[in-house]
Specification:
Elements (H helix, E strand, L loop, with lengths): L1 H13 L3 H17 L1 H29 L7 H9 L3 H9 L2 E2 L2 E2 L4 H19 L6
Antiparallel strand pairs: 1-2
Helix pairs in contact: 1-2, 2-3, 4-5
C-alpha cells in the first residue's frame, strides 16, 4: 500500500485542478476502506521518510554557502578521520552499499563541534602590521 500512496502523493503534488485532487482523495478513501491499519502505518512511514528528506535538505542548505569558504578535506580529516569523498557522500545522500549515506546523529554533533571550533579559530585571528 505504501507504493500506492507514494504514487498518489506524487499525483497530488502535480495536480493542476481541484477535480484531480478530489479524485485522489476518493482513491485514498478506497485504500482506507481496504485496510485502515495498513493505510495508517503506510502514511506514518511516508511521513517519517518525508521528514528525514527534509532534514537532509535543511542540512545541505545550511552548509551550501559555507562549503566554498572552508576546507571540507580539513573537516573530514581533522574531525572525522575520513576523506573529503566520505563527507560529500554523506552530504549528498549517495548510495553506498545499497543504501543512501547520511550523517548519523553523532556525526551531526561532531560536525557542529567542528564548525564551532573553526569559528573560534577564525574569530581569534586579528591581522596586524
Amino acid at each position: 500500500m505504501k507504493k500506492e500512496l507514494e504514487i498518489l502523493k506524487e499525483r497530488f503534488i502535480n495536480a493542476k485542478t481541484e477535480s484531480e485532487k478530489i479524485e485522489i482523495d476518493m482513491e485514498m478513501q478506497k485504500l482506507i476502506d481496504i485496510d485502515a491499519d495498513v493505510f495508517a502505518n503506510s502514511m506514518v512511514e511516508l511521513a517519517r521518510e518525508t521528514a528525514d528528506n527534509a532534514e537532509d535538505l535543511i542540512l545541505k542548505a545550511q552548509l551550501n554557502d559555507l562549503l566554498p569558504v572552508i576546507s571540507i578535506s580539513y573537516i573530514a580529516k581533522t574531525y572525522f578521520n575520513k576523506s573529503r569523498q566520505w563527507f560529500y557522500q554523506k552530504l549528498n545522500g549517495n548510495i553506498v552499499n545499497g543504501k543512501p549515506a547520511k550523517f548519523t546523529e553523532e556525526e551531526i554533533k561532531t560536525l557542529n563541534l567542528a564548525l564551532k571550533d573553526i569559528s573560534k579559530k577564525i574569530g581569534s585571528i586579528e591581522v596586524s602590521l
